[in-house]
Fold these 2 entries.
Entry 1:
Amino acid sequence: MYKSLFGALFASLMVLSSSALAEEPILIKFSHVVAEDTPKGKGALLFKKLVEERLPGKVKVEVYPNSSLFGDADEIQALQSGQVQMLAPSLSKFEAYTKQLQVFDLPFLFDDLEAVKRFQKRDKSRELLRSMSKQGIYGLGYWNNGMKELTSSRELRKPEDAKGLAFRIQPSSVLDAQFGLLGAKTVKMPFADAFKALQAGTIQGTEGPWSNIASQKIDTVQPYVIETNHGSLNYMLITNQKFWISIPYQTRTELEAIIEEVTFAVNKEAEAMNQKDRERVIAAGKTKVITLTPEERDAWRQALLPLWKTYEAEIGADVLRAAQTVNRKH
Ligand code: LMR
């Protein structure tokens, strides 16, 4: 009897240890739409590096840049259905899931990236990380890119100069209304398609930070970049809520510590990376960079300010008020 008990014990121990041995690392597929040499691209690679250094054999990260796995049209659904585990879409791409994040699209709301960062540390911003939990989307942090400029086939100095041009925009009704106030047209289109559409002439303008202008070579197909700094391009690092809570507590805590570190690094480097790309574009000399005088820039601001009121109810007056207090002059 002892012998058979021992045999059974031994057999179950063997099963246990072989299943432990066979345990696969948790796989995180991180998909994004930009080049690797951008704030988000570098952030994704740093996340992979730190995870594989600190959680070897436990977690594996695969990064898919440049819309190579999923693009703007399908990446969020891919996260919800578990085909990818991490994304960092721009905050302008969440309108179908929450209206509150539209606050980040309001033109001239934040004076600079530092103001955006201060807002992201406020409670109201932290709460927005949970604003899509009903749709199974879990916000892990805010990553920033940079202030947005306009690129155009025509020299733009005054807001009315944009009249009649068609701009590629992200899927955001605030951005649609922004160009509407200028008398311009808009075409919502995935990031990956903008360059070709400019080449084909189906659009005549875009908006974006220097890192995207440079890495997508927009300066080679647009004769003007206008330094409006009228808004900023920011991301939310997101995961699938069910997936995230399924990760064993200890591992998840370590992942969250890594994310905090990477978030800090991305947000610290983003501005400098954009400045470097600005220099690169100027040095390449393919496009004319127009720097507006303070008076010229103020005319754009005045033209677009009415949007704050238009979107206040959808965004929430409390969120908008919190955002309005982060500029230095307040
Ligand atoms: C865009 O579509 O212009 C941006 O959101 C792309 C990105 O992820 O920076």
Entry 2:
Amino acid sequence: MAVTLDTDLSRVLGAKTARAMADSLDLRTVRDLLRHYPRRYARRGEMTRLDDLQVGDRVTVLAQVRRVTTRKMRNRPGSLTEVTVGDGAGEMQLVFFNRKHGQLREGAWGLFAGTVGEYRRTKQFAHPDFHLISGDDDEDWARALIPIYPASKDVSSWVIQKSVKLLLDAAGGFGFVDDPLPEDLRARHGLLSLPAALLDVHRPTSQADVERAGDRLKWDEAITLQLVLAARRRAASLEPGTARPRRPGGLLDAVDAALPFSLTEGQREVGEELAAELDSDRPMHRLLQGEVGSGKTVVALRAMAQVVDAGGQAALLAPTEVLAAQHARSIAGMLGPLARAGELDGDPAGTKVVLLTGSLKAAARRTARAAVADGSAGIVVGTHALLQEGVDFADLGLVVVDEQHRFGVEQRDALRAKGNRPPHVLVMTATPIPRTVAMTVYGDLETSVLRQLPGGRGGVASSVVPVSDKPAWLGRAWERLREEVAAGRQAYVVCPRIGDDDTGSTETDAPEDADGAPDEDDAGGNGDRRPPLAVLDVAEGLHEGPLAGLRIDVLHGRLTPEDKESRMRAFAAGETQVLVATTVVEVGVDVPNATVMVVMDADRFGVSQLHQLRGRVARGRHRGLCLLVTEARETTATGQRLAAVAGTSDGFELARLDLETRREGDVLGAVQSGRRSTVKLLSLLEDEELIAAARAEATALLATDRGLADHPGLAAEVAALATDERATYLEKA
Ligand code: ADP
Ligand code: MG
């Protein structure tokens, strides 16, 4: 029978099996089935630790029958059969009601699949599916490694295993599978052919088989992903943009003259890089990574000034209103009269700095939009409101996206589309990104890094305050805060929730971080945890208790923007000594005199979020102090995660730690929006070299105008991945 990768499974398998596979696992074609890899391999004598199974897991285990007992049920008619199976490390009960299980004899080996339950403290499967190994298909089961596939209630692991076998027999091997990877590429990286790798992954005879197959199959994933990104980069590089050359005697020179400090070496280098790229009619697409406090804003401002000097407009997109307002304020401050062209005290050689946020009153919004449209606003700072219809630029030359991790590719593109021609784009992120993530999620951007912090910074000392283990420490924390305030400094107290409602919802001012999710590994699960501490409650408690007499204020997303703005101003001016806030202070807020941050319920925040937060108290010449208050025990995974955050201020190391607690799919979700996850084997943590190599190969493959014309197999793989609008980038290439 002639089989191809696109052959429908119903032509190879029974109609019923094929339908079940399609319905429950979304496996429809031969390609789908072959790309459905085993999750792991079971082998006799070295099996799943039954003890490690969690209630609620749906699993397949390989085990031996140890005891079988049948008894009449007391309260209802019928009988109950209990079968005890074990694998050496543990035992579990299988429970069957009113069914005959004659095959389940002591000593028999089998695969047992079901959802793990618990009855009287013993793990059990009720009505499991099972497949005894000493059956009619001995040859298959005698294999050293038994593949355990991601399965469903209707399609068990062994049905998938048999189906692969059927396919192999029907097609006479995997010879029909064309290898999408060019032979020279395979040779360069020592990779198996695809047919050989598929055979080894589905029917391995040794662990070495599995590993070699994995190396090869990961390449398929990496190269398709990188081809999509390389095509995107190439398409972008072919778009005609507008060069914005540097002009002396304008805003940029004024900014440089007004800076109260000299640029760090890193800022200077990145500045040169940006200046050169802006001076090209090939639009810049650059990611600027820099530690919290490394001084990205001034780098961006200088780039914006260059564009304004060349006659264009620059837009700065910020994730929150607080941050947008702060940027607008500090940019206007730095430019002085140059930011007030058209006003009485303004410099006619300057420009206007306009703030555009969702909360502007209709009249103010009209004025702002008019200045954007007629070009008199050279610098436009705003939130998502910038992306809206009706915001039209006279000549948008540069888009700067601050704290990119809160914006998606689509939003970046929406703003880009507001230029007459593609504008230059600078994306800034304060969360350092592991190299693999930079190469995938941000794979369509070139990268610059600011490693250095401006000199004269005191740094931050962090410690965990584990109130369950060491209750007295909390009192000491408030004393430390009072000492700092007595010395003229200021403090933040951060809480996960606003309060004054009983819903337990968390802060909603800013879009939630993908990395903000705390994990749930504390004993007792999540259900019976108390609600997170709230700003309003904590502020009141502090006011009446440990911080009585200090000038305390609150800041959170439910305040009106004017209110937020004025409270932030009062804090910046030193009128407020202690600001109790939600994560609205997380990104970018800059008050150098603030030196203490106490994070309540620190375990409710993600690693990157904590790192961001503590960046708020490392901004002046005084040494900062960050206290992570938690009820999590020091010995739990959560306690240790917090200890790791306290133990290092290296953002790249923390980004790695953060990545470990997330799943690849979550991270890569931003890149691939096809109908199912294409990344099954590739690991962002472990496969850095492979991803880098695949990136280089992908770039080389797309270096000419022929695109993938000579590699139809690869083109097909990519097409299968890029089912959404991003596929258009490939067609353009
Ligand atoms: P981030 O990179 O986190 O956005 P910012 O741009 O907000 O950091 O800069 C943090 C602080 O450092 C600001 O107060 C800024 O004025 C200051 N700063 C920036 N560059 C320098 C420098 N070269 N020397 C001294 N201070 C600087
Ligand atoms: Mg910033």
